[in-house]
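Materials and Methods. Structural model of Diguanylate cyclase. The 1058-residue sequence of Diguanylate cyclase from Roseburia inulinivorans was retrieved and submitted for structure prediction as follows.
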Amino acid sequence: MAEFNKEEIDYKDQLRQSERERKDLKNIIYELPVGLITVKGGNELTIDIANHEFCRMSGYRSADFSMEKMCMAQLIHMEDYMMFEDAAEVCRRGKTSDEFEARIVTADQNVIWAMFQFQIYTYRSAVPYYLVSCWDITERKKMENEIMLVNERYRMLEEVSNDIVLDYDVKKQQFEIPECYLKFAENKSVKYAGTEELYGAIHPDDRERFQKMFETALQREMKGTAEYRLRQGGKESGKYAYFRTYYQSIADYDGKISHIIGRSYDISTERAVREKLLREVQLDPLTRIYNKTASGEIVDAFLEKSTQGTHVLYVIDIDDFKKINDTFGHTVGDMVISDIATLIREQFTDEAVVGRVGGDEFMVFVKDTSLQEAEAKAEQLCTNVQKTLSGDGAVIVVTLSVGMAMTGKDGYDYSTLFERADHAMYHIKKNGKNHYGFAGETEEGDCEGKYRTEEKENRRNLVADKEFLNTAFSLLSHARDINGSLNVLLEQIGRKYQMNMVSVFEYAPDGKNMLLTNCWSDMGQIYEKNILPITWPKLMKAEVGEFVQTTPKWQEKRKKEWLEWSGNAIPIQSIAAVKFEYSNGKTGCIDVGSVEQGKQWRTEEIGTICELSRVVAVFVTLREKMQEDQQAIHKLKNRDRLTGLYNMEAFRTKLVQLLEAEENPQENTYALTMVDVNNFSYVNENFGAEMGDSILKEFSRLLERKKVMAACRMYSDYFLVLSRGKSQQEIRRRVKEGNEEFEAKLQERYPAGGMKLSAGICFLSGKSSFETILESANLARKYAKEHNITSGVVYIEKMRQTRDEQVLIATRFHAAIQRGEFEMFLQPKFRLKENTIYGAEALARWHFGEDGYLQPNRFVPALELMGYIKDLDFFILEQLLKYMTKWKKSGKSLFTISTNFSRKHFENGGEAFLQRMHETMDKYDIDPSYIEVEVTESVMTEKLEDLKHCMIELAQMGFRIAIDDFGTGYSSLSVLYEIPANVVKIDKSFTDKVMVDNKGEFVSQMGKFIRAAKEEIVVEGIETEEQRQFLESHGFEYGQGYLFDRPIPADEFERKYL
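The predicted structure was written out as tokens:
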């Protein structure tokens, strides 16, 4: 017992001694200027003490390291921790470790670099304790990295620099081969080469030119540049790089050339970039097919060399494209153009020249074809391009008009062929559009006669510069500022045809004076007078469109007047003019002048100026019409005539004025809200437009009563409201209350209309443009409408990101179909009791490049929005029918497989959908009873009558009908008796609740009601055995979900289940 007490006392003394040593060590190291820690060894390295400097470096507190509760592995970067274990092992062998660098992960998860060194300072209970010193070297590492980066840059520059010193000794007739060239040489030990060896390394196509350059440099002192291709590697390599050589021949004391020196460097990349830029110049930026200029040049180059064979040029125009842009916006318009360009490119072989030659106009030049093949291609193109765009109640079918011209019969150059095909295309447009035809075909078969008649009617058979005229028309069609655009056009005319003055005059009604309205001059004159007397009788007597030129005698006679008019600047020596007619028979002229005396006008110039006078006449007419419209708008005092609210432009101006006039804007919150009335067409269609107008007026009065800052009726039933409040919550509350008040009135008057308000709110902040704020409010409004939120939705940035993603998805869709990126997956359906497969559901999956498979919730909404979902639905149906055909031929048993169809199919009565179903099934020998058509429950609340009609016909064709996602919408069970459905699928949201409280009983009762109406129920989303057992015990027979199997590729499904 005494021995035991003695051992206990000794042990306690050791503990006290150890604690004193630890305390002394802590006192010693704590204030040292370098980082010091004591680390306990053993199975893992744990920190025992950390001094002030180490805590500062690492960002931890001293308390964080107390009681050995932090391991070194938590503190040190995982890639560096092995060095600490190695250092500890060195110390255990009785040595001090070498210094080593490692990374510390600080408390705020940043990384710093430190230099470490280990040594043992004690053992406790046979466990080593290490004293680890460290100091921050982060700044040094940064400097080292900078130096390393600089060195790496220089190394890379040395590697990529292909500069070769050229030194040719004339007397020895040999080149010195520099070190950097040896990597290209066959024999890397040879330091010199003769001229024949050099010539042999030059590309055969460049050899003669290089040899002549070299021989010329041997004759006299000179400097020069040469570009050529130099072989890389041995003779058999066949690889060449482009080089540029700057050389100089040097004469000796006797005047004879002794050396040719210079430097050569690799310009392969430069050449590639140059060729790429040349290719880019040829491509249309939107569609990536040839642009107008490149198309013509490529076709003309081919026709110059090819004198035989039959070649056809197509001119293709999108019908009613302006209507598409006006209805759906330019983003959708651009997508339509891109999609059609892709279809055209895929329709024709790689040998065909495909170009975009106008906003919505394309051309295709097909080599070595026949009339029959060309006509078949045109018919196929017109058929394939047809698709329906729908949204916000508007439906537009995209179609094409195609004109064709053939070499030989219709011309031998691009310009002539294009003009003939263009005439044919416009003939198609005038006679119903959505068709194709050759030049030379009229309504009765003689388009050429009509074409020649039109040519004969042209009183001046002049050659006009078509390219420049197209520029003028483009400028006119995109003009926002008519006057400014006209000035730009005058300048372009002057500079292109080297005129010194171009001006536009309008004649006064009295015929005595003319008004200068636009003028350009390259001499900087400011013309003193805008009203001039008419002193040129010949021009007054000229016919409209006639080119008239002054005589030297008349010019000299009027010289004083011209000098006075032009502010005594250099006089115009030669003048020509073309008279034009504009609004209601008024006349004017376009004048062109040159300081060159006796200027001779070329036929091209005369023809172009005459044609341009017509363009100018349109400009002047538009300008006058705009002035009249502006006066009318001014009379309306910037108000919407129906509601009395601001119109759009006035609202934009008023918004800026109101916000600038606010005295204390920082004390308030401001918001722009966009509102529209859902299902507004219900009133117009059932009660008349007058009743619809009364609703708009009443909503306007509500806004006025709410004392908003300003309100505007954009168009139809769309409104903008500028609000001010003390907080965002206040504005949201007022929007919610206003919506509820008006919705209550609508519900009272039109209980069957389902009319509600969708409101998108964008709070104003920063310096966002009006267009950005408006777009933001509109995105929020669309979100509110799509999600049936009537209290108003506040814009968040994710809405714009979602929209941009939707645009990307819609843009890539048709190309993705062609490239096979869409796949059909199948998810099996099982009998719950027997756990055996009895059917499946077909689902779409999109392999989206490096992102892998895109989930349907990422791409389906975007395709729904654009109406492209209809194409996807039929693509999956056809994939399913192809697999079924394959299984049937191989003797496998078929069972019913369901496939989804969007609500978009049932718009406008669903007749197009039914016709397409007939056409699709006619192509395959598959009984329709094996196909189950799935539609979501929400369709029943939106388009019940259309749905009933379609479902009845589909049932008569033999299809099975399934109602998907049942229970997520607002339909009643009574609707099931109206729809000839065979199957009702209960949504996964109900399956998730069967094991929760009393929810399972509700699902059970719902199943009983459905079974009373239909023969089959499929429960979706079964994921656990408990769910399966519950459903099976409550009378449910069929289900699908991950408990049984996930959706899998069709080939895998075939191997697994058939």
